[in-house]
Amino acid sequence: MTSAEEVALVRGASALGVHLDAASIERIGRFIDRLEIWNRRSHLTGDRDRARLVRKHAVDSLAVVSELPTSGTVVDIGSGAGFPGLVIGCTRPELSLVLIESRRKPASFLSDAVRSIPLPEARVLQIRAEDAGRDESLAGGVAVVVSRAVRLDVFLPLAASLVASGGRVVAMQTPAIQEDSASRAGAPLGLDLSSVRDYALPDGERRRLLTFSRR
Predict the structure, then answer these.
(1) Rg (CA), the chain
(2) What is the pLDDT of residue 139?
(3) Strands lying side by side in the sheet with 73-77
(4) End-to-end CA distance of the chain
(5) H helix runs in the chain, sequence order
(6) Which residues of the chain fall below pLDDT 70?
(7) Which helix (H) or strand (E) holds 144?
C-alpha cells in the first residue's frame, strides 16, 4: 500500500471511530494488492482504481467494525470482491469469519485472498445464501450477519435464518432506506431495528448502517 493510500485509509477509519494498527493496515494492503491483480482479468469491481478502492470501498467496509462481536462467528452474505468481509477479516483476524458467495469467480478470488493475506480463521462458502440457512453449522448460530448493498427485502430473510437469538444483523445501505420501512421489514422476521447510523465516505458520499437485534 502506498503512503497516500495508507493516509486515506487511516483518516477514513478515524472518521468512523476505528483505530487501525500496523498489522491491520498491512493486511488490508495485501487484500487490495490481490484484488488489483484479479481485476486485470476478472473485473470483480466496477471501480478498478486503487485509490478509489481504498477511499470508497475499504473505508466504507470499516463502518461495520463497531458492530463486530468480541467472539463468535461473523457471516458476510454476498461477499463479492471482499467488501466488507475481507476488510472485517483484516481488522479482526481472530474472529471466525464465513464469506458466502455463489458466483465461481468471486468465490475463487476470495479463497485466494484468504490464503494470501492470510486469514486463518476465515473460510469461503461457494453456495447460495438461501442454502446457507440450511447448513447445520451456521443456521441459528451466527453472532453477526452483515451484507453491503444487498436489497433489504432480500437480505433480511436470509440473515434471519442464520443469526442466533441475541445476535445482530447489519445492513450496509444508502440513506434512501428509511428507518420506518426498515423496521417494518425486520419485525415479522424477529429482527428489531436497534440503531441507525449515518456517515459519509471521504468523497462525501452518504451511507447508512442499519443494525437489527434478533429476538
Answers:
(1) 16
(2) 92
(3) 122-125, 96-100, 73-77, 142-148, 163-173, 206-214, 191-200
(4) 42
(5) 3-15, 22-42, 50-52, 59-62, 85-91, 104-116, 129-132, 152-160, 179-186
(6) none
(7) strand 142-148
Instruction: Annotate 63-91 with b (16+ C-beta within 10 A) or e (fewer).
Output: bbbebbeeeebbbbbbbbbbbbbbbbbbb
Whose CA is closest to 182, among 155, 215, 146, 148?
A: 155
pLDDT at 133: 87
Domain 64-214's class?
A: alpha beta
CA 7/CA 3 separation, integer angstroms: 6
Nearest of 112, 151, 107, 156 to residue 128 by alpha carbon: 107
What pLDDT score was predicted for residue 78? 96
Spell out the domain ranges in the chain. Answer: 64-214
Backbone angles phi, psi at 49, to 5 degrees: -70, 130
Query: pLDDT, tens digit, for every residue of 144-178?
Result: 999 998 999 999 999 999 999 999 999 999 999 99
Compute the distance between CA of residue 52 and CA of residue 60 in angstroms, rounded to an integer: 11
Note the pLDDT of residue 51: 92
pLDDT in tens, 30-51: 999 999 999 999 889 988 889 9
Residue 62 is predicted with a pLDDT of 98
The residues, any chain, with a CB within 8 Å of residue 179's CB and separated by 6 or more, are 193, 196, 210
**CA 211 from centre of chain:** 13
